[in-house]
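fyi for ur records
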Amino acid sequence: MANTRNADGSAGDADYGTIGAGYARFRQPDPRIAALIRAELGGVASVLNVGAGAGSYEPQDLQVVAVEPSETMRAQRPSHLAAAVGGRAEALPFKDNSFDAAMALVTVHQWSDLRAGLREMRRVARGPVLVMTADPQALGRFWLSRYAPEAISVEAKRMPAPEQVLEGLGGDGDIIHVPIPLDCRDGFNEAYYGRPECLLNPAARQACSSWSFIGAAATERFEAALRADLASGAWDAEWGSLRPTPQFEGSLRLVISRPS
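which gave:
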């Protein structure tokens, strides 16, 4: 990924000063995903959250230090969370082994230097390092590939393979498939697998950075095609079984690295 800097300090290719204003409204932590993350952190006392955004999934029972480059995202952190430190994954302002654990949740695709950021996380964490990301090879399972192939394509190019993330962290580890609940509160694209109408809301799409890359013409084609297929019943004829399906096995992965 190119090393870019946006006006509000955002690192990476997406300008969260522009698209991040409503992020906290639509990207609420889902309690089931949060429980999985907390269970994998285990018995640690302190954790560093890298690329923390608005603070989703920060465990309330742990000492958390958050790092986030975007001023817009830092400003959306709720009052019960500690203020985030301005900083980037590639140059964390902490000494070696400063934390029991570290986590980076749906952020590694924004880093200018993936390997450098992963090395930094491993450097400052005594114990487990957790990275939640998407498997680019699994993105095509989602029906959105039919209606907005451009959004799927751009995400696949931005997302590193989970195996690449684990290799960059070193040590032993696992890659866990994270089930996506039907009523998922965290509004990334796949969260709407059984609620297609939600993605017709421009504000919901704005909370998913992939839409900022595909242009107005592609977005208009998506809206027109999905509206037409929902009205005619064509969407439900092909994917209606997803509406009551309690979980979707999509692209969401949790990479867990443990020190050697």
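Strands lie at 46-50, 63-67, 101-105, 129-134, 172-177, 180-181, 247-248, 252-258. thats all i got for now
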